[in-house]
Amino acid sequence: MNSTIPSIIQGGMGAGVSNWRLAKAVSRMGQLGVVAGTALDQLLSRRLQDGDADGCIRRALEHFPFPRVAKRILDAYFIPGGRDPSKPRKPGKMHTAGRNLPAQELCIAANFVEVFLAREGHSGPVGINFLEKIQMPHLASLYGAMLAGAAVIIVGAGIPMEFPAAIQALANHQPASYTLVVSGPKAAEPVVLTLDPADFAEPGQTLPPLEKPAFLPIVSSATLGTMMARRLPGGVDGFVIETAVAGGHNAPPRGQMQFTPDGQPVYGPRDVADLDVFRKIGLPFWLGGGYGSRDKYREALALGAAGIQMGTPFALCVESGLAPGLRRALVAKALAGKGRVFTDALASPTGFPFKVAELEGTLSDPAEYAQRQRVCNLGFLREAYRKADGSLGYRCAAEPEAAWIAKGGKPEAATRRKCLCNALVANIGLPGLQPDGSPELPLVTLGDDLAGVGRFCANGQTEYTVADVIRTLLG
To answer: Is the dihedral of CA 48, 51, 57, 61 positive or negative?
Structure first.
């Protein structure tokens, strides 16, 4: 499979930003379109409650191999004509470590729908991008994407050692497992997430084996790449090597954390991946973070890369899921020389540094952040922790501080944490409602390449397309 992966991989930028429309446009241009696999179940339930105006979700569900599951989802969430905008949406099911079939059903179907729509109408490959840190939906997300024919699985924000085995099992519709990271005292037995495809099949249904997708972990060091290649022989098909200027979550700097005068983490020579080591490993690699220009693309190829992964320029295309007002405002800032991205070491509840595009009216504004009432009602970035009685609990450093502390969280770990779940969903025009009835505010993540997106704009226009990006890169 890796020999068929194109030289340009579109990054999985933010929940619903790298949506099926963007991925389809990229794949139709002969490159690898990628959908973001984060929070697709919540996005599907919200779009169904908003009426599924274009009918795309319902059309895709007609092809879902488990019709009873599709019917249950439509019965639970679809509102013909859409809900009353003043009323909150019915929330999707939160994921938990135990058997949770309603949450798994919704997640499988949502990932299927997104990949199906991205693949519809062309023969190019489509990939999906997951964050390893968001572990509880992994197996359901992976199975849904594979049912729809995802050609490539890309995983970052962690060390995804257990993905190859899960891919192999699910390709044969066999039960799959994934070990959950649990904070607090170690237990005698690890907590293992499980998914059995037989739980969702129709009575007597037998499905043919699925095509096994290629697996590309996102890494930032040669040490990690070498370890994965040695421990997972045949399970890794290549690497995406990201630098610290890439958008979204970044790997933390090696060694003791140091900061610039304005509070950003300092990255040094130890944080630069040794490409000599990757060349010796012998697997193809793509370079990500700051490679969104023709010269940098050619530089990557000259360094032995199979190509590049690029997120920020695609995230600001008209085909992306980013709300048009946000997209145009960010491009306008870049054209005016005022586009700035801040690497915030505290924003993400995961503890990873997180790139934040500075924009008025979003949670990048400290005044707006201070006014928001903290709440955790989506729960994707919750961590599992061991309670005193040995049972599992769930907590998030961005939830109300009193609740976090009551669950054993350190007070200082909650400082300046932002609810990325609600903010990233607001980025694509599907905000939830705060307790006071006001909509959740966005928080846009982009890479440092925001400053250079003017290269894709004609005559100072604030809109450009996927075709403009790829033509500019390939000349």
So the answer is: positive
Q: pLDDT, tens digit, for every residue of 14-57? A: 889 999 999 999 999 999 999 999 999 999 999 999 999 999 99
Determine the average pLDDT of the residues in 68-91.
92
Residue type, 424: L
- DSSP 8-state secondary structure symbol assigned to residue 39: T
Per-domain boundaries in the chain: 2-321+464-474
Task: For residue 1, name the pLDDT band (cuts at 50, 70, 90).
Answer: very low
Residues 92, 429, 316: CA angle, nearest 5 degrees: 125
- Mean pLDDT score of the chain: 91
User: Alpha-carbon distance 408 to 419, whole Å?
Assistant: 19
pLDDT 10s digits, 160-187: 999 999 999 999 999 999 999 998 877 7
Mean pLDDT in residue range 301-320: 94
**What is the C-alpha separation between 454 and 336, in angstroms, rounded?**
9
- CA separation for the pair 98, 36 (Å, rounded): 25
Q: How far apart are CA 201 and CA 174, in angstroms?
A: 12
User: What is the edge-to-edge ordering of all strands in the sheet holding 239-242?
Assistant: 8-10, 307-310, 285-288, 239-242, 214-219, 152-156, 126-131, 33-36
217: left (phi over 0), alpha (psi -120 to 50) or beta: beta
Exposed, middle or buried: residue 140 (CB in 10 Å: 0-12, 13-18, 19+)?
A: buried
Whole-angstrom distance, CA of residue 218 vs CA of residue 247:
13
Of the candidates 474, 50, 104, 43, the residue with the CA atom closest to the CA atom of residue 301: 474
Q: How far is CA 453 from CA 415, 421, 463, in A?
A: 33, 26, 10
Q: What pLDDT was estimated at residue 243? A: 80
CA-angle at 48, arms to 129 and 109, nearest 5°: 45
Task: Determine how β-strand 126-131 pairs with β-strand 176-179.
Answer: unpaired
Contacts 24+ apart (CB under 8 A), 356-361: 356/443, 356/444, 356/445, 357/330, 357/444, 357/445, 357/446, 357/450, 359/326, 359/329, 359/330, 359/333, 359/444, 361/441
390-394-396-402 Cα dihedral, nearest 10 degrees: -70
What pLDDT digit, counting tens, does each position of 206-232 carry?
899 999 999 999 998 888 999 999 898
- The reported pLDDT for the residue numbered 2 is 44
Look at residues 130, 138, 132 and name the one whose alpha carbon lies nearest to residue 195: 138
The rounded distance, in Å, linking the Cα atoms of 433 and 431 is 7
**pLDDT: which is higher, 424 or 459:** 424
Assigned CATH topology for domain 2-321+464-474: TIM Barrel (3.20.20)
* Cα distances (Å, whole numbers) of residue 267 to 239, 257, 259, 287, 464: 21, 9, 9, 17, 32
